[in-house]
């Protein structure tokens, strides 16, 4: 079971790099915001799976909850900038 | 730019429902600092994140109505006072700085219990200070970005004017 979790974890880490490509080279601001949110969601899952691997889920669950919260704040702030740029017609 | 009134029913409703739970989670992180990751600083940052959510969705003025910058500065100082005050009480009771076991006769409990309570006390102070400091940093960045600080801008214009006239 542990090797299965490890494989899932490594696979998710590789997927993060695909999202990172969208963040760096994304043609529009919307791509970057959505890709950042996707990276945040994947990091959350990776953290919980690491908790399973180490046998301390409750500890890593706290970290991932705080991470999800800060990720939400960041996405909201980015979306707000996006709206302001769109209102001025330049993005 | 970022301080325009943000009229979005979905975001406002979500944030209004979320903020109490975020603050409750911050108190959990603060109180469980002994057993799980977290503690004073992390709890304070999550409390500040709740305030940042309010500012992002309801706007600059509304956030200032809830917690003014003067109050934030006072809370920051009170947090440091709680931290240093507990430390100096231990010093007065004959121990080292932040030697919580000396608080045992004062709190009428055993020494290990006094250590636990002392750590909770200083972490509460740290959380207050961090929350207020983070909040005022966010608000200061936004106000300088939008040129909201009219007084500072005026003095800067005067200074540049003086420099220009001196050059002439």
Could you give a short account of the major beta sheet of chain B?
none
Q: Rg of chain A, please?
A: 16 Å
Number of helices of chain B: 7
Overall body shape of chain A: elongated
Query: DSSP strand (E) fraction of chain A?
Result: under 5%
Element order of chain B: H for helix, E for strand: HHHHHHH
Low-pLDDT runs of chain B: 150-168
* Number of E strands of chain B: 0
- What's the helical proportion of residues of chain A? over 70%
Average of per-residue pLDDT values of chain A:
88
What would your notes on this structure say?
The complex is a heterodimer of chains A (91) and B (168). In chain A, 90% of the residues lie in helices and 0% in strands. Chain A has three helices and no strands. Chain B is 77% helix and 0% strand. Chain B is built from seven helices and no strands. In chain B, 30% of the residues are buried. The A-B interface holds A 58-59, 62-63, 65-66, 69-70, 73, 76-77, 80-81, 83-84 and B 1-2, 4, 6, 11, 22, 25, 29, 32, 36-38, 42, 46, 49, 52-53, 56-57.
